[in-house]
Design brief:
Number of domains of chain A: 2
Oligomer: heterotrimer
Strand content of chain C: 5-15%
Structural class of chain A: alpha/beta
Number of strands of chain A: 12
Number of helices of chain A: 10
CATH topology of chain C: Rossmann fold
Strand order of the largest sheet of chain A: 3-2-1-4-5-7-6
Structural class of chain C: alpha/beta
CATH class of the largest domain in chain A: Alpha Beta
CATH superfamily of the largest domain in chain A: NAD(P)-binding Rossmann-like Domain
CATH topology of the largest domain in chain A: Rossmann fold
Largest interface: A-B, 34 and 33 residues
Distance between the termini of chain C: 8 Å
CATH architecture of the largest domain in chain A: 3-Layer(aba) Sandwich
Largest sheet of chain A: 7 strands, parallel
Radius of gyration of chain A: 19 Å
Chains: A alpha/beta, B alpha/beta, C alpha/beta
CATH architecture of chain C: 3-Layer(aba) Sandwich
CATH superfamily of chain C: NAD(P)-binding Rossmann-like Domain
Shape of chain A: globular
């Protein structure tokens, strides 16, 4: 078998976008697209693509035990808490796109290899996928980072009901991700929703306080990490290279989506899907090599 | 006739003023002003970082004092005047910030968001109402949405449990007829009291506040000497004077309010907002008044005209909290690049 | 299709555009998704787009959804292929997406045939309400959506009192929901509610259009409506049977004007508005029948009280000043002219 066999749990917009990305991938093949509603637009799309579908959710996955190596969970935090132990017992790797925080936090540009041994990886948050690599770069350039902060502005239309009701969890998860990847003790995350039309593309700023910032080193680390992200997030674009302003190091990126199923402006949703795919492809590569 | 105030005045001096003071308001200043506000008899005193609880950050400016310090200091002299906080979901969280404010004895929680995004407040408003706290909803940058949209968003907040709805003219961009239309529509269709929070960029803060009252608003925000973001707020001492002239009861003592204004002059002196070319352009561009200080600073660093920054930000329809865009716009202007 | 019939329609479009054109300029270079492309309104809209592209350099793209693959080719072959048109086929209930770069959506697909409503009310409800749900689900994924125009119905108002001259967009009349007759109106009401829900939740710019009776080319004469009955029966030599005493009141708009109003609503920058679209000129059915039969020789008979005694007259006449004032729309033909054009067009079609 040259391909990693995967399943997608959750057939909403995120799951359907993942499906299109999997279809394009050379090393992944979708064994099952499982959700609850056979009539949903995502299911219709999958059926048209000839992908096997199931309306039985996790039970549908159970029926293909032994045929699936990895499951993307694009349901909800509550859903993943129920699914995680089932997937584990089935021997399937869980890639969690919900905010359930069951498994190891994975930001491919930073810790891809460490995560390849985990049975459950979580993709942090959209703002985390965009900002953590930059925070990590600063942490690489400076032993001591006093404080790190990230601000993401996303199009109002890209924030669904789940994002809106879970803003607090988003902030907490992003903050903890920033801390653990930069080695900094103190972090803050801010999220803005902007309703402007046409929709703004996701924009993420990382700011940090460090003693005697070494901009040359920070920039070198920054470029290194950006070069690791752009292969899996083609729409990741640096708008402001690290610079010093008012005593803080500031850098800014814009993330445009691939526009597979989700609109291009929803770079916030695309980046987390791209990260999940990057993880699965790395695992495929590793297993092929093994 | 009853002597009960028919209009509730909210004093935002120690919250909106934070924008004008780069969030460096000191313990002494808080103590002194809180006592003066209590003496004047304002209904509510709002205290904290300009962007509310949990907002101290590199993005919108770090506070000199923590939320806990500010609220504790302000609470101390208050007896009749109630302590209020501003909360923006996306900055503040229930666990970290709202819980703390409850513990410190805050009596009014004003949950604000960009005027089209009321549903991000659902959790926070519901949580506070379940704790039987007083909660209002605040629609910020409300010049950016139509009256019909504002009503829809206000109704969402009302259904989450908000007991008052305040329209903020965060950019100082409203003209009086717009105040009349928007406040009027909300008053007609909401069960809860409606308020208006004016800014002075186009010199209309008092006029707009009066129009709001005529349209049925029961709550007005103001700050002593207009101490606040951009060209400042509706000066409370003027509001009290004008309302007295119109025989509208506010429960505020005019002389004590004038004293509070004098105190603000002594405490904050040169930081008091004034009209300027930049604040006028900011109002015309419809950009959040809180951007004034950072725009000034960034314009100097990048050697660009702050007015051009405001115009560009206005074109991009930025909302409060997007201060990071100032650096991007300024660096683009400086590079002579064509930006979108 | 008959060249004379085509020419008649095109000249109507040009006449309407002579005043409406400036209001449509915001559509230049844009991409419209049109559901219900083979209905009377859909065909008229395609006629407009064709003229806008061919004679006015609009470079409009239109993705037109037809239910079955060859519907458009069968009904109006001259519209099945022109610069800017992409044809999509499928049932709106099972739509799996809208092209990502669509900027304007006109959702005109609906079942409105009274016969279908009588025998298959469940399907009518499903297509009208759930079709709207499906369209808006897809709209949520568009990159840059400027406007979604939902074609509702003048029937959402319920019963217009006989002493109420015209109903405004704020009017609500009696509408009992627990009869099968209510299914059509309720499906349209629910479609509106669904759309308003999407607009609120997902910040989708929405305009609702509530059309009233129309007459004109492309209107299928097999539909059992008063005006189509009168025309069809006149072509067959009569007699025309009016169930009641002929005092039932309607108002009739020319289909070409209907389409131009819808297009103007689509192009307008207003959001969250609801517009009545129709003629504000009341006409009783007897007068309408007389106007139609006068074009035939020998003139067909008109029989009143063809139904049972006690048939209650009804009234359905919209106030359209909101659309006229905010969209700047007007009428390019009065009712007499509209009838003449319609009959002429039908004669061309019948002769070919």
């Amino acid at each position: 078998m040259s391909e990693l066999s995967i399943a997608i749990l959750g057939t909403g917009n995120i799951g359907t976008d993942l499906l299109l990305k999997v279809q394009r991938s050379q090393s992944l093949s979708c064994r099952l697209f499982a959700g609850r509603n056979l009539a949903s637009p995502g299911m219709t799309k999958a059926a048209k693509l000839g992908v096997p579908v199931s309306a039985e959710g996790i039970h549908g996955i159970e029926r293909v035990a032994g045929e699936v190596d990895l499951v993307f969970d694009a349901t909800s935090a509550a859903g993943h808490l129920l699914h995680a132990p089932v997937l584990k017992s089935l021997g399937m790797i869980a890639v969690d796109l919900t905010p359930a925080k069951v498994g190891k936090m994975c930001v491919p540009a930073v810790n891809l290899n460490e995560c390849l041994e985990s049975v459950n990886v979580n993709m942090v948050t959209c703002g985390g996928q965009a900002s953590i690599p930059l925070a990590y770069a600063i942490g690489q350039a400076h032993q001591e980072v006093e404080y790190i902060e990230t601000v993401s502005s996303i199009a109002s239309r890209s924030a669904g009901p789940g994002t809106r009701i879970n803003l607090d969890e988003y902030l907490e998860t992003t903050e903890s991700g920033l801390r653990s990847f930069s080695g900094c003790q103190k972090s803050k995350a801010i999220l803005n929703l902007n309703p402007a039309q046409p929709c703004i593309h996701m924009q993420t700023t990382v700011m940090a306080k460090v003693q005697e910032p070494d901009l040359t080193r920070i920039r070198a680390e920054f470029r290194k990490v950006v070069s690791l992200i752009t292969p899996y997030v083609p729409g990741y674009e640096v708008i402001v290279e690290p610079l010093l302003e008012n005593g803080r190091v500031i850098s800014m990126v814009r993330v445009s989506g691939l526009g597979d199923y989700l609109p291009k402006f929803a770079g916030n949703l695309d980046i987390i899907n791209c990260a999940a795919i990057a993880y699965a492809e790395a695992l495929a590569k590793k297993r092929m090599g093994a | 006739m009853s002597d009960a105030p028919s209009l509730t005045l909210c004093d935002a001096t120690l919250r909106d003023g934070s924008h004008a003071y780069q969030h460096q308001i000191t313990a002494e200043q808080i103590q002194a002003y809180a006592s003066a506000a209590e003496a004047a008899g304002v209904a509510y005193l709002e205290v904290g970082h300009g962007n509310g609880l949990g907002a101290s950050s590199l993005q919108v400016g770090e506070s000199l004092l923590t939320d806990e310090e500010m609220l504790t200091l302000a609470k101390e002299p208050l007896k009749h005047t109630k302590l209020s906080v501003h909360i923006i979901p996306g900055f503040a969280t229930i666990q970290r910030d709202i819980q703390l404010a409850m513990d410190l004895g805050v009596e009014l929680f004003r949950i604000g968001c960009h005027c089209t995004e009321a549903d991000v407040c659902e959790r926070h408003i519901s949580f506070l109402r379940q704790q039987s706290e007083e909660v209002w909803g605040v629609l910020m940058m409300s010049h950016m949405a139509s009256a019909a949209v504002l009503l829809e968003e206000a109704k969402k907040m009302q259904s989450y449990g908000a007991q008052g709805i305040v329209l903020m003219d965060s950019a100082g961009a409203y003209l009086p007829e717009e105040v009349k239309q928007k406040v009027g529509l909300l008053v007609e269709n909401l069960e809860v009291a409606v308020g208006f929070h004016a800014h002075q960029n186009l010199g209309l803060a008092i006029a707009n506040s009066l129009v709001a009252v005529e349209a049925g608003a029961r709550i007005l925000d103001g700050t002593a000497k207009g101490f606040g973001a951009g060209a400042g707020n509706a000066p409370l001492e003027l509001l009290v004077a004008v309302l007295q002239q119109k025989q509208i009861l506010t429960g505020v003592d005019l002389y004590a309010m004038l004293d509070a204004a004098n105190l603000v002059e002594r405490l904050f002196g040169s930081a008091l907002p004034t009209m300027s070319d930049v604040s006028i352009v900011s109002g015309l561009a419809g950009v959040f008044s809180g951007f004034a200080k950072p725009v000034k600073r960034v314009a100097e660093q990048f050697q660009v005209d702050p007015r051009d920054i405001f115009v560009e930000l206005g074109k991009r329809r930025v909302v409060g909290g997007q201060e990071d865009l100032i650096v991007e716009v300024a660096s683009a202007l400086a590079a002579g690049k064509e930006t979108i | 299709m008959n060249a004379q019939a085509q020419h008649l329609v095109k000249s109507d479009v040009e006449r309407a555009l002579s005043t409406a054109l400036p209001r449509l300029e915001s559509l230049a270079g844009k991409h419209i998704f049109l559901s219900g492309a083979t209905g009377c309104l859909g065909l008229w809209l395609l006629e407009y787009v064709k003229v806008l592209n061919e004679d006015h350099g609009f470079s409009l793209q239109v993705s037109a959804l037809q239910r079955n693959e060859h519907d458009l080719l069968t009904r109006a072959p001259h519209l099945a292929q022109f610069e800017g048109l992409s044809l999509l086929s499928g049932d709106v209930r099972y739509l799996d997406g809208i092209p990502a770069d669509v900027t304007h959506v006109i959702h005109a697909a609906a079942l409105s045939d009274r016969r279908l409503l009588a025998s298959r009310p469940v399907e009518v409800a499903e297509v009208n309400a759930l079709g709207t749900h499906r369209i808006l689900q897809a709209v949520r994924l568009l990159e840059d959506v400027h406007n979604v125009v939902l074609l509702s119905s003048g029937l959402v108002y319920g019963t217009q009192p006989l002493d109420c001259e015209r109903i405004t967009e704020q009017f609500t009349g009696e509408l009992p929901s627990n009869t099968v007759n209510a299914v059509y109106a309720e499906s349209k009401r629910f479609a509106e509610a669904i759309a308003v829900g999407f607009a609120s939740e997902s910040k989708i710019p929405l305009s609702i259009v509530r059309p009233f009776a129309v007459i004109g080319p492309y209107q299928r004469l097999d539909l059992p409506w008063a005006v189509t009955d009168f025309i069809r029966d006149s072509f067959h030599g009569g007699p025309i049977k009016i169930m009641g005493d002929g005092t039932t009141v309607r108002s009739i708009m020319y289909a070409g004007d209907f389409a131009s109003w819808v297009l103007c609503a689509c192009a307008a920058k207003l959001r969250g508005e609801t517009f009545n679209v129709g003629s504000p000129e009341a006409i009783d059915l007897l007068t309408l029948a007389e106007k139609i039969t006068s074009h035939f020789s020998p003139q067909p008979d008109i029989q009143l009280n063809a139904g049972h005694l006690g048939h209650h007259p009804s009234r359905l006449v919209p106030e359209v000043s909101h659309a006229q004032n905010t969209l700047g729309v007007g009428f390019s033909l009065n009712l007499d002219q509209a009838i003449t054009q319609t009959l002429t067009w039908n004669r061309y079609i019948r002769s070919s």
